[in-house]
Design brief:
This protein is α+β, with helices and mostly antiparallel strands. It has four helices and eleven strands.
Length: about 160
């Protein structure tokens, strides 16, 4: 994102850090000035439009508070509509992946634990590599192995929670 684009964002919106809402300062349509803005896209992220370009509200919130656009912004509590600055953090892609919600297609109820050939298997992904943690007789044992590995590799406390 270029400096002139960041300046346009700063001159178009104000941001309330307590509520996470954007208020438009100027608009092509008078009726939109001073209204709280943002609509959800298909993935649950809040979007706003400036001219013909769409922006994620959490990125604009970061820019309005810190003055730059980072590579990755993480919603700590996994709520994509909660754009309060206390819920946002700048992270690397690797750290972003260490704070994922439980996927909707997960059948075991735990990230990195699955049934294979009648036994519970645990694994963890680190630096784009899958590390096998072992096969276990019970689901609980596999979860303990996965939880221990998450601590070793500094996963976020919210990693794997169900939304």
């Amino acid at each position: 994102m270029k400096d002139d684009e960041i300046e346009l964002i700063k001159s178009t919106f104000t941001y309330n850090q307590e509520t996470g809402s954007l208020t438009r300062l100027k608009s092509y349509h008078r009726r939109y000035v001073t209204e709280t803005f943002g609509t959800a896209n298909g993935k649950g992220y809040m979007l706003v439009r400036i001219g013909k370009k769409k922006y994620n509200v959490h990125r604009l919130a970061w820019i309005l508070c810190h003055g730059y656009n980072p590579d990755e912004v993480d919603h700590i509590n996994h709520d994509k509509k909660d754009n309060r600055i206390c819920n946002l953090r700048e992270v690397s892609r690797q750290d972003q992946m260490k704070n994922r919600a439980l996927g909707i297609n997960n059948t075991s109820g735990r990230i990195g634990v699955s049934m294979e050939k009648g036994r519970w298997k645990a694994h963890i992904g680190i630096n784009r590599k899958r590390i096998h943690l072992g096969f276990f007789d019970t689901f609980e044992e596999a979860c303990v192995a996965r939880g221990s590995a998450e601590k070793v590799y500094s996963f976020h406390n919210n990693h794997g929670i169900k939304l």
